[in-house]
């Protein structure tokens, strides 16, 4: 539910005339998806839960129909660069289950595979591309080199990708330290269609005299830094500046953040409203 940017990209590329098929690792089990989001889930082919009979059938299909592609990709998996036993086995395992998605991609005549994130999605894209003999690419959304380096098979994915999109020059420089990729690594910054977030000066909740209204939106995890926003609310209160903060989103730290708001004595000024649709987000911005 937090990948709003990804859904936005899919819609924009479809509007440009690209024929896009959707594949995923696991379906979103959330019961708060909007009809538009649900429609994307319904048309997506997911790897999990594994369908064993179809997986075995797909594996036999590639072994006997495209033996050279199968053996070449298998060899890449068996000679992957991971030296940690568990990481090595994970790469081999991911090849073993990639045939399921690859068979579906073959039926849909996929000519290029793109993976968002450099984790399992990119691993599946790499192995499916090998089985189908088509190019693949990756978008890297991670700004932290610490978390990027924790992803297995990273050097090989960077090396084999036709091109890589990343969110910043900072991120591109870090990827370059893992494997030389400057020539095929392109900075594509995150952005918004500002016409969809037009300022509404007549909004009935726009202004209360003397009150600062703040809005925070995102997944409630450590890297989003919501704890600092709540601590800032305490500083405003200490300096006698009245403020109200609305937090849209959910995540594993939600209860911790609520506890922090109580500890900082600003819980009455911080409203946790949970996950909201993009329509609700627009209204909140206005």
Can you describe what's shown?
By secondary structure, the protein is of the alpha/beta class. It has two domains: 184 residues, Rossmann fold (3-Layer(aba) Sandwich), CATH 3.40.50; 92 residues, Glycogen Phosphorylase B (Rossmann fold, 3-Layer(aba) Sandwich). Helix 10 links the parallel strand 7 and strand 8. The model has no long low-confidence stretch (mean pLDDT 88). 47% of the residues lie in helices and 14% in strands. The strands form three sheets. A four-stranded parallel β-sheet has the order 3-4-5-6. Strands 7-8-9 form a three-stranded parallel β-sheet, with helices on both faces. It has twelve helices and nine strands.
| Shape descriptor | elongated
Number of E-state strands: 9
Task: Summarize model confidence as the mean pLDDT.
Answer: 88
What's the number of domains?
A: 2
**H/E element order:** HEHEHHHEHEHHEHEEHEHEH
Structural class: alpha/beta
CATH fold naming of the largest domain: Rossmann fold
The total of helices stands at 12
| CATH C-level name of the largest domain | Alpha Beta
Helix content: 40-55%
Q: Give the oligomeric state of the chains in this entry, treating copies of one chain as homo and distinct chains as hetero.
A: single chain
Radius of gyration: 23 Å
> What percent of residues are in strands?
5-15%
